[in-house]
Amino acid sequence: MAKKWVYLFGELDEAEAYVGGDWEDILDLFGGKGANLAEMERIGIPVPPGFTVTTEACNAYLSSGGQFPEGMWDEILDALKTVENLTGKTFSDPKNPLLVSCRSGAKFSMPGMMDTVLNIGLSDETAAGMVELTGDERFVYDAYRRLIQMFGSVVAGVADDAFEEILEAERHDAGVSSDSDLDAEAWKRVTQRFKTTYRRQSHHNFPTKPLDQLRMATEAVFKSWNGKRAVDYRNAAGITHDLGTAVNIVTMVFGNMGEDSATGVAMTRDGSTGEKQIEGDYLTNAQGEDVVAGIRLTKDIVLMKDEFPEAYSEFETIAENLETHYREMQDVEFTIEKGKLWMLQTRDGKRTAQAAVRIAVEMADEGLISRQEAVQRVAPEQVDFFLHPQFSRKSVKTAKETGGFLANGLNVSPGAACGVVALDADLAESWAKEEGKDVIMVRPETKPDDVHGMLASKGILTSRGGRTSHAALVARQFGKPAVVGVSDMEIDMGKRQIIVKNQTLREGDWVSIDGTAGEVFSGQLETQIPDIKDRWLMKLLEWADEFRQLGVWTNADYPEDAQRAREYGAEGIGLCRTEHMFFEPDRLPHVQKMTMADLPIERQESLRVLLPFQREDFMGLFRVMDGLPVIIRLIDPPLHEFLPNHADLLRELGDLKIRLQHAATVADIDAIMKEVRTKELILNRVESLHEANPMLGLRGVRLGIHIPELTVMQVRAIFEAACIVGKEGVRVHPEVMIPLTSHVNELKRQRQVLEQEARKVMTEQNTEIEYKFGTMIEIPRAALTADQIAEYAEFFSFGTNDLTQTTFGISRDDAEAGFLIEYLENEILPSNPFATIDRDGVGELMHTALTKGRSVKPDLECGICGEHGGDPDSIQICHQLGLNYVSCSPFRVPIARLAAAQASLADMTAG
Ligand code: PEP
Ligand code: MG
Predict the structure, then answer these.
(1) Which of 363, 420, 652, 899 has the most crowded CB, counting CB atoms within 10 A?
(2) Which of 11-15, 34-38, 120-124, 347-351 has the lowest mean pLDDT?
(3) From 58, 102, 418, 470, active-site residue
(4) What number is the average pLDDT over the span 45-68?
(5) Is residue 575 lining ligand 1, measured as CB closer than 6 Å?
(6) Kind of pairing, strands 482-484 and 459-462?
(7) Mode of pairing for the β-strands spanning 416-422 and 330-337
(8) Which helix (H) or strand (E) element contains residue 850?
(9) DSSP run (H or E) holding 282
(10) CB of 641 closer than 6 A to ligand 1?
(11) For 634, which DSSP code?
(12) Is 470 an active-site residue?
């Protein structure tokens, strides 16, 4: 049987039989608009009669070099006959002419990219006939000139400007500012002038035969699929080029036939809040494009209730029916022609994150969808919206239009923040704390001793650094919005200003950063604060918990973070980076003293002072996490991080020597010399600890082995804390974790030290503490020898930040601001491996480690604590690998709960 190219809206069943019954295939064949028009007709919703020319016809036309496939035109003529019968009007008949629209409609919506011609069927004869029929000359010639204008631009490539000039002149002559104030005579003149323009520019007369108009418009829509605009859009949106577009030919209905006519657009629920309430705009006596173009002030759809009570009540029922049918919030277009309501389009409605959550939950509560579907309908990234302030859409738009947008960077910590630029941590802190200013700390990059400034700031902005840079990690941990790696930003510390692409901001000027989008603006944008306690979100996350298999733990160093994470639903601490506590101002001097010490006895002295601090820290964590596991990782970073910067020291020594030359008294000389000696001592130490590649140097377990007293102190602090709070009645479950292990012997040795000290403390405290000893897997060798390592470990935690760094052999601190961007742009890598686990490499190592580890200990507890633990795509990989939990920063816990549920549900559907 010959292929059918044209389907009436009433022939959906036939089309379904042809494609095999799958709705996706109908979308392929009819495009979204055509499929939904046919579906609306099938369920009894009033749709103007019409038909769809399939995407197969479009593809056949394009691949044949511009020939309609055989039989297609005859099918169009047949379909047109049926439409004539249904409407009682006849195409080309001056007495009662049928007018149609010809619209493209691809599978995926491509807003504004594809072409439309309205009012096809108008000619001088039919126009005159319509004037007779309607008695409304103004309406008819307005429609006629619209046809010439659209046809001219879509079919004949006549520049729209030429038509606009004529309209402009006509408005000017009539002394009016709006087209809607032009009278019938004006539109008749415009129609004639449009025809002349058409002829001049296209070198052809405007086609006066309606069938010619229809044929040429259909052909133009086919061709528009390969127009530059459409191709560019598909490239940007990732839509394949071989889908083709369908052409929908639909009876025209008019919302501009008088005060009993109207046209509008609406959503079946509120697209901003999600509330179950129709939201929309309409215009009386207007055409659809007038509503969308925003030339006339539209009316709120609630007013339709009074103005068109019958049509409105029918509209409400239709909205309800559409939702029940599609089980989704719908975005519709409608027209009322002389009191009769027609639906012209329906599709799933766009919505804010907040609305997405509420709609999913309420639809499940209404029984429209299942709870599983509700959980699957909200993107994990949308949950982020509830956790952080956001810039209002309006203020971002205005800033972009008025030159307020400065630059893009990496969006490493979500949320929006405004503040005055402070170029160092001390100033950031003092402005924030003493002067109550909102501050954005702006630095080339941040270091551990910038933390106090970061904490005091509203947000962090750096010109260098990547996704796992210090600034990114700390910002995420504390929920501070951050944009890093803004390479277009130059920081001039001398002049205390920043320069971004020709714009200069001085310290103290306002800047706004969007850590969700990675955007930087000058000035102060309007901010909105969403609510994490949103009741629909809470409900959705509770449902998610029922479906997920992965546990969701958190990376937290301080009790406040742990508390927040628990409120967000964390079920344990997967990583406490103990060294972060060493940077507190009251501890750093002792850490530095310990680092400087040559003799064990001196070192012991500093560690003795540090012990109570650490014990307090751990007691706080245990109390908050009462009953839940707490993984405490022993010290990890290289020691030089605790000492002052080498360049700063050199500069300070230089300054001191100058001061020495100008010293007035012996006492001054003595004092300065004392300072010089101290600084020189520190400088020596900094130089001796200098490593060309510190991330691969004396850090992690190597440091613990190098300075065993440090391990002993940390173990003692953990166990004393556990014993003390245990006696208070807190249920403690400490897990001690060794970082950066690469050989089993490292673990063997550390385990011995730990067991000895732990036993000692428990005896002293006369308390038994159940604990686990385990290791991070963040070096490929550890993953490959995981069976040996598992002999000495009760748990593994994948440190995927380091594991990515060491597997790829690329620096986590530098790569993202450097060549990695090029790699991503050129698609050498499919995604940033520091953001999403590299499934084939890092993922494979994890798989090996799990298999080998669990071959020795089937119950081996395995989790992840690298930044990937909060990334939805990586969470799916973790689920598939069979990890027990993911651990992420407190602010990502809700996202992880949803992503983990979606991973299990995807598995269930696939299986
Ligand atoms: C890791 O490497 O993934 C990790 C969690 O440790 P850190 O980021 O502290 O090196
Ligand atoms: Mg690590």
Answers:
(1) 899
(2) 347-351
(3) 470
(4) 97
(5) yes
(6) parallel
(7) unpaired
(8) helix 842-856
(9) strand 279-284
(10) no
(11) P
(12) yes
Classify 508 as helix, strand or coil: coil
CA 384 to ligand 1 center in whole angstroms: 23
Using a CB cutoff of 5 Å, list residues around ligand 2, an ion: 778, 799, 802
pLDDT at 644: 84
Instruction: Give CA–CA dist 228/219, Å, rounded.
Output: 16
Distance of CA 450 to the CA centre of its chain: 28
Q: Which residues contact 201 (CB under 8 A, 6 or more apart)?
A: 152, 156, 157, 158, 159, 162
Per the annotation, the verdict on 102 as an active-site residue is: no
Residue closest via CA to ligand 1's atom 8 equals 801
- Give tens-digit pLDDT for 678-707: 888 888 888 888 888 888 889 999 999 999
Position 640 pLDDT exceeds 70: yes
| Phi, then psi, of 47 in degrees rounded to 5 | -120, 135
Lookup: tokens for 634: 């022993």
More confident of the two residues 534 and 862: 862
Residue 295 pLDDT level (bands cut at 50, 70, 90): low
pLDDT digit string (tens) for 297-319? 788 999 999 999 999 999 999 99
Phi-psi label, residue 563: left if phi above 0, alpha if psi -120 to 50, beta otherwise: alpha
- The residue whose CB lies within 8 Å of the most ligand 1 atoms, and thus the one to mutate among 636, 696, 892, is 636
> What residue ranges in 423-561 does DSSP mark as E strands?
439-443, 459-462, 482-484, 489-492, 497-500, 503-506, 510-514, 519-522, 527-528, 551-555
Extract the tokens encoding 263.
Answer: 């046209």
- Given a contact cutoff of 8 angstroms between Cβ atoms, the answer to whether 569 and 904 are in contact is no
Catalytic annotation, pick one of 102, 418, 723, 865: 865
Rounded to the nearest 10 degrees, the angle between the axes of helix 55-63 and helix 210-224 is 80
pTM of the model: 0.82
